[in-house]
Amino acid sequence: MDEVEYAVALDALAWQVVRTQAFRSFDEQVGRHLFPALWAQEAVGYCEERLGRPLSDAERLEVFWTAVRTAPDPSLIADPRSALRAVIRAFERTRDLLAAPARRLVLLRSVKPLLVLADSGVALRRKDGTFGITPPLLPETIEVFAPLSPTCLLISTPRAHYLPHQGLTRKIAAKANAGASAWCQDAVYRLPSMPWPTHLPVAETPLEVRRPRLSAVPAQQPPGPAPAHPEIRHGELRAILEQLSHLPTDQSDQSPVLRTGDER
Predict the structure, then answer these.
(1) Termini Cα distance of the chain
(2) Dihedral angle sign, alpha carbons of residues 180, 209, 127, 156
(3) What strands, in cross-sheet order, belong to the sheet with 152-157?
(4) Cα 210 to chain center, whole Å?
(5) What pLDDT score was predicted for residue 263?
(6) How far apart are alpha carbons 202 and 184 in whole angstroms?
(7) What's the burial of 19, exposed, middle or buried (CB within 10 Å: 0-12/13-18/19+)?
(8) CA dist 167 to 113, 163, 175, Å?
(9) Are 5 and 223 spatial neighbours (Cβ–Cβ below 8 Å)?
């Protein structure tokens, strides 16, 4: 595979990863878990602005926890385009990970069909062999399994034990099939001539991110600069992101009291 073909393969694999339901669900779940705290942080600033004075430590904590308990559902104020923006931002981050010097693409083939194909297209396998979506979703040790056909498996990996000349073994196929089952959205497919793999149950529930425990203490120093998304390097993606970031004409004159989540 020459340099151009390799770059195209990385682009395709990165897009396939970020478009999966499991990947998008990770972003949605993390946002839903963190939204009450972000809403409460905005509420503290809004109260100080309305009162014209800083709140005491006790007042800040009281306002914060009251806002956490009474925060609205994120869907009530979320921009429906935020999921598209998240995918675009995640693409370059995912592509950079897959293109790291310590990683390689490996294509494994078998004579007989060994792979089932899920509607997700890819699965992320963690170092401990699981396929969960616990943060961080994309550690450096993650492996990406992308079945291209029942006899062909593409793997992005930092490990060196996958050997193309040995082909696609049943052991490796079992790993890929477990990932297909875990990451599928609605269905997993097999060739009619291929028996259903043994010990391969289809997941009954979607992958979940565990709800974190929130704690809050008064700040001991002034807050630092607000976090910002990394700059999008690709010009065409940057243009698309800008289009998805502008308020629609019929909403441009609306100024919500709390703007938490508008820039996701």
Answers:
(1) 37
(2) positive
(3) 104-109, 152-157, 143-149, 123-125
(4) 14
(5) 44
(6) 8
(7) middle
(8) 12, 7, 14
(9) no
The mean per-residue pLDDT over the stretch 91-114 comes to 94
Q: Model confidence over 62-84: pLDDT tens digits? A: 999 999 999 999 888 777 788 78
Radius of gyration of the chain (CA): 22
The answer to whether the beta carbons of residues 156 and 103 sit under 8 Å apart is yes
The answer to whether 153 and 173 have CB atoms below 8 angstroms apart is yes
Q: How many whole angstroms from its chain centre is CA 188?
A: 21
Q: What angle do CA 145, 149, 154 make, to 5 degrees?
A: 30
Percent of the chain that is helix, strand, coil (3-state, to 5): 40, 10, 50
The structure tokens listed for 215 are 């704690």
| CA distance linking residue 26 with residue 135, whole number of Å | 9
What does the pLDDT average to over 52-61? 92
pTM (predicted TM-score): 0.77
Q: How many CA atoms lie within 13 A of 44 on its CB side?
A: 21
Three-state SS for 24-87 is HHHHHHHHHHHHHHHHHHHHHHHHHHHHCCCCCHHHHHHHHHHHHHHCCCHHHCCCCCHHHHHH
| Chain mean pLDDT for the chain | 86
Tell me the C-alpha distance between 43 and 177, whole Å.
Answer: 47
